[in-house]
Prior knowledge:
Shape: globular
Strand content: over 45%
Distance between the termini: 28 Å
Amino acid sequence: MNKTRLTGSVRTAGSGAAALMATVVLAGCGTQAPPVEGAHLENSPAATGLMQSEPAGEGREGGAETPDPGADGDVVVSAGDAGAVLVRLDGGVLTLIDVVPEPSWEQVKLEQEPGEIEVDFVRGADTVEVEIEIDDGRLDIEIDTKTPATDGERIYSLEGAGSVTIDVRAGFVSLISVDVTDGWVASVDEDELREGEVEIDLRNSATGQTVEFDVEVDDGRLEVDRTYTSPLR
Length: 233
């Protein structure tokens, strides 16, 4: 795994294929991380077992491990401490199995149509929006979180692709580091950085999988959007 700490842009690539799983676990609300100082590049092995062993809503900001291309089966989409959505993939057909809000969270929206499922969770000022869709031969999973934009560092895990550390100060977002799993390449939009926002695209050319990570402060709320895509056979 390649880790880059920076205040500018990064484009890094590892070697070898990323380890992929059929279960998808997506994120909820961010947690603050210890301060990070200095700028350096270091290599470290990818963590294993994080998807099963780390409870939703605890530790680092959760992420997703997109399924193997063409994999069928049940997929758990976890919205961190907001709850989870269980769906089934079968020959390119998407079916909703269950929605389970966590205590103190409320499910306020559920919409279904062929090939698309949308679920929203709310707890006070916090919202988590989950959209799961089959589009043009690809599985798209998007999770958007909105929380009060309190100052501090946060780590967002993009399991299977890496992780991102950001800092929120006075309504602006800065990029601290991008941690890229072997087999993935990350590119950072420098124009967005200058505007106090962070936009990162990650791609695995061997599997055709992509991750898009966007975060900004809008009207006092921290908005984090993540989209995970994987081709279907």
